[in-house]
Amino acid sequence: MGFTVGKQGGVTVVDVEGQLIVGNRQELKAKVLEELDGGERKFVIDFSRTGYIDSSGLGVLVSLSKKIREQGGELRLSSLNEDLRTLFELTKLDTLFRIADSREDALEGF
Amino acid sequence: MDSELVLELPSDVRGIEAAVDHVLRRCSECRTHARRLRLNLRVSLTEALSNAMLYGNASDPAKRVRVEVRLSAVAITARVIDEGGGFDPRTVPDPTTPQNICRAGGRGLFLMRELMDEVHYNDRGNCVTLVLRLDQFGEAASA
Known about the structure:
The complex is a heterodimer of chains A (110) and B (143). Chain A has helices at residues 25-37, 55-70, 82-90, 103-107, and strands at 2-8, 11-20, 42-46, 50-53, 74-78, 98-100. By secondary structure, chain A is α/β, with parallel strands linked by helices. Chain B has helices at 16-27, 34-56, 108-115, and strands at residues 3-10, 64-71, 75-81, 118-121, 127-133. The two termini of chain B are 19 Å apart. Chain B is 30% helix and 24% strand. A five-stranded antiparallel β-sheet of chain B has the order 1-2-3-5-4, covered by helices on one side. In chain B, helix 1 runs antiparallel to helix 2 (34-56) and helix 2 (34-56) runs antiparallel to helix 3 (108-115). Classes of the chains: A alpha/beta (110), B alpha+beta (143). At the A-B interface, helix 2 and helix 3 of A face helix 2 and helix 3 of B.
């Protein structure tokens, strides 16, 4: 379980492996904010290897999106499985984020 | 035949995942759709434990969280009890409204209510009861 940060065509891509939950959400937040402080503005968080996100994880995504937008950037999400999509739909967060079916779709036109 | 599982946990969120996995394993023979366990019960129990540890017990290592899970032919009933002073769940705002959707917190109780068939708090507000009704025509989730 962890987070892998990489770069693809000027976009910072973060892979979430395992779960994004109350116990590790601060680690993701710190990694993304470090990149934001370093000047990065385009972010994709990819959930293709993520089993579960809890409400704290959803909260940290909302918080990061807001901070990135304040700096003139954008956070996109990609590759949510059926369960994760349900959580975003129930909480209406699917209206707040640009959610792509795949990492490639998320990177397209960024 | 009914069976019951009781766990006593420290107020440490790092223990939530293992505790929920343990409960789900015990529930795997229940006759319901696997997704109801994997998503509805997992999410709701995780949120209840997180709320109990972080807000109920204020992460006080001296305080514990008790989990009582009862399995019957018709439902899975989970009670999560903390040692805090309790809260009034009626004061928690709807996190999906335009004025609240950008807030970082406040979605745990909402998800519990959306995903479980019943959610009840005791009068003090330190014990939540989650009920997931089983489908008598469903197959065992582990099948």
